Every structure is written in structure tokens, then in C-alpha cells.
Automatic annotation (TrEMBL):
<keyword id="KW-0378">Hydrolase</keyword>
<keyword id="KW-0963">Cytoplasm</keyword>
<dbReference type="InterPro" id="IPR018948">
    <property type="entry name" value="GTP-bd_TrmE_N"/>
</dbReference>
<dbReference type="InterPro" id="IPR031168">
    <property type="entry name" value="G_TrmE"/>
</dbReference>
<feature type="binding site">
    <location>
        <position position="233"/>
    </location>
    <ligand>
        <name>Mg(2+)</name>
    </ligand>
</feature>
<feature type="binding site">
    <location>
        <position position="248"/>
    </location>
    <ligand>
        <name>K(+)</name>
    </ligand>
</feature>
<dbReference type="GO" id="GO:0002098">
    <property type="term" value="P:tRNA wobble uridine modification"/>
</dbReference>
<dbReference type="Pfam" id="PF10396">
    <property type="entry name" value="TrmE_N"/>
</dbReference>
<dbReference type="Pfam" id="PF12631">
    <property type="entry name" value="MnmE_helical"/>
</dbReference>
<dbReference type="InterPro" id="IPR006073">
    <property type="entry name" value="GTP-bd"/>
</dbReference>
<feature type="binding site">
    <location>
        <position position="253"/>
    </location>
    <ligand>
        <name>K(+)</name>
    </ligand>
</feature>
<keyword id="KW-0630">Potassium</keyword>
<dbReference type="GO" id="GO:0030488">
    <property type="term" value="P:tRNA methylation"/>
</dbReference>
<dbReference type="Pfam" id="PF01926">
    <property type="entry name" value="MMR_HSR1"/>
</dbReference>
<dbReference type="InterPro" id="IPR027417">
    <property type="entry name" value="P-loop_NTPase"/>
</dbReference>
<dbReference type="GO" id="GO:0042802">
    <property type="term" value="F:identical protein binding"/>
</dbReference>
<comment type="subunit">
    <text>Homodimer. Heterotetramer of two MnmE and two MnmG subunits.</text>
</comment>
Amino acid sequence: MINDTICAIATPFGTGGISVIRVSGPEAILKVNQTFKGRNLLSVNTHTIHYGHIISELGEIVDEVMISVMHAPKTFTAENVVEISTHGGVLVTQKVLERLLELDIRLANPGEFSERAYLNGRIDLVEAEAIMDVISAKNEQALKIANLGVAKQTSKLVYDLREKLLNIIANIEVNIDYPEYDDAVTMSEEIVEPQVKKLLKEIDHLLKHSYQTRLIREGIKTAIIGRPNVGKSSLLNTLLDEDKAIVTNIAGTTRDTIDAYVNIGGITLHLIDTAGIRETLDVVEQIGVGKSKKALEEAELVLLVIDQSEDLTKEDLELLELTKNKKRIIILNKSDLNKSKVKLADSISISTLTSDGIDKLEQEIIKTLQLEDLNNSDFNFLSNARHIQKVKEAKTSLESVLEAINNEMPVDIYAIDLTNAWNMLGDIIGVRYEDELIDQLFSKFCLGK
Ligand code: GDP
Ligand code: ZN
């Protein structure tokens, strides 16, 4: 049960002539009324706007404002909502906000309004998460994925899959519980098996594209590796300079990690704690094969740097071998020295000194990740790790169904796995009621009349 009242500045920080502070919760109207000089907000109609002033505890004017009063449940959060439009200016807005905090209105956490909207049944979980994604989107593509009504499309995909599953389950249940009911098809394994196989195919397709979507959204975990002095730090700096990366140092954890995000053609590379990053931050270490191995475990993309002005060393060869099964790009650096001693297939020649070949490298990154064919309209896939996990669990359950059929188990055994898959998919959109299954059963067959 949500019973506190929260507030936050709803407009982008420091822009525009007007700032809006949103207040939501059972006491939103009551509390704002205590600090408002103008009409008595407790007696105004819902969805009306009122002119007046926010006043301090001592009765001084803090700001001249317009106040919108919206009664539950027809509001964004389905709670009482008050929106205060201040005259803007960071300072004044901050003052009004502070005044609200004095009245025991709590500052909202990021996304908390959306969370309430979900908890109050106003939006489904996928939509709520999409809003969270917009808040935390790290790059343009991700923002598009988050924005493009993808939430709706994801919901729809999941609803579709569930609907198909339900058809199978409902028929089986009817067979079991109402053997005398003639209108239902008898669900023998000959009927169930191909249907389950078809569902599995759809799920595989979904998962494949979801992976790519997630890569774009969360950033591709990328490791820059190579023996000392080949130019890892220089490459990192070149990428950082050109693409305005963010470098974060997350200290305080057991292994303080350093992460950098680089935007390449709208795709985020999440450079994981590799040699180059550490060195760039002035912790000069000689990083060899040993350390690279660790970075490699996590990496989804490897940028292997080689100094083409020197012959390949044993260490280079080891790294080439170590990365051969990874998505990798072999980078032959220092092309400006004009003494190319290294010939390797599928490599890209660059110079971090002159930036020669960097464009080509960026194209190669996009190509290697096979993302070039992903146009924006294709983003109707799951884009969230939690969703993907749930779909995988549903897939496992469906595979158990096939196994049970192979082992000639009775139908009611695999009905459990089917229901399980149905529940997993329900978790994605935030519904999981056996009751719902029963309801649908009844509405489908008009049983119990
Ligand atoms: P790391 O140890 O792999 O990180 O290598 P660094 O980035 O620290 O570079 C090692 C040395 O190679 C430095 O003196 C760089 O200036 C030099 N270097 C890096 N990239 C290039 C390049 O493209 N051309 C030339 N000529 N020198 C480079
Ligand atoms: Zn270095």
C-alpha cells in the first residue's frame, strides 16, 4: 500500500521558461494546499488550473505559480496529482521544491512516478520499464528503442505468444476436466507437438533479435587488448576524443572497476576495465597476456591491437590464438611509420597518431556486430535483460514439453510445463494469475453456464 506523497521536478533541468514540479500521493492536494495562497485547492474540481502563490512557513511569497489539481484515479500515477508550474529559474524552482519537502513530501526516486503508475495498474510492467529506459538511456539508438512505442510492441509479442499457449493449455484442461465436452479438440501429442515446436521457433527468433537490441541499449562490452606499447591507450584516447565518451570510476566496490562508454554511429561500446583505460587514468601498468585473459572473459567484442611496425611477437601470437573464437577486430596500428611488417587477413590498418583508418575501424565495428541491417523499425523486440531471461525460462519449459512427449508421458504432466511457460511470459508484463487462466478458460468455452 502506497501512502506517502512524493514530488520531483518534472521538466528538464535548467531549460525553458517554466518548470513543473509534480506531486503525487494521497495527500498531494492537502499538502500543497497548506502552502498555497489562492483558491482552496480542496474544494476545486478535478483537472482544473489555479493561479496563486507558494508561500513560506512565515507567509512570504516564494513564487507566483499555476497549479493543476488532478484527482485519482485519472492521473498518470492513478493517485492524486498536483502539478506546480513555477516561473522557472533553477533557484526559484529549487525553493518551491524545498518548501514541499518541509511539508513532509518526499523527493521521488528516479522513475518512481512510473513505478506507482505500474503498481496502481495504470500501465503494465513493460511500459513502466520503457519509461525507466528513457530515463537511463545511454545513447540515441537506445533512446529510440525506449521511445518508439516499443513497450507496446513488446507487450503485444508477449500477449501473442501467451494467447497461443493458452489455446493449447485450455484445450488440454478441457480434455481433462470435461471429457464429455465435445466441442474441444482432443489434444493428443500429435497435435501438441507441432504447436509447441512452432512456438519454440518464434521464441528463438525473438531471442536472437533481442540480443542485438540489448547490445545497442546497454552497450557492447568491449575489451581493448594487446601487448605493451602497441597503442592501446592511444586508441582509447582517439575513440574518446572523437566520440566524447564518459569515463566513470566506480570505486568502493571490491574490485574498483573503470568503465567508459563510447558512441560509435549511434551504438554504444561499453569499454570494460581493460589495460588502456587504466593507463589513461595514469595508473601505468604493463599489461600482458595474463591480465588480458580476464578482460576477455566478459568481452562481447575484442579490439586486438598490434604494432605493424614490428614483427609479430610470441605475445601477439598468443593473443591472436586466445581471441580466435571471439568477435574481434584485429587492428594494425602505427600505419604512419610506413613499415608494415605484419600481414594478417581481416585486419584494419590504422594510425592513432594521424587518425588514419579510424573511420574504417568504426564501420568495421558495426559490421562485426552485424548491426547494420537492424533498421529502426525492427526494434520491436525485447530489449531488457529481465525480459530476455523470462523468455529463456519459458523456452526451457517448452523444451520440457517436447521431452515429455518424446518419453510418452501423459498429457496432464506436460500441461504443467505449458502453464509454467505461460506464467514466465506473464511475468514480463507483470501478470501471473492462475485465476486468469481459469477465467480465460471459462470465457473461451463458456463452461459452467
Ligand atoms: P599501450 O601500451 O598499448 O597502451 O601503447 P600506448 O598507447 O601507450 O603507445 C605506446 C607508444 O606508441 C607511445 O609512444 C605512442 O605515442 C606510440 N603510438 C601509439 N599509436 C601510434 C601510431 O599510430 N603511430 C605512431 N607512430 N606511434 C604511435
Ligand atoms: Zn598504454
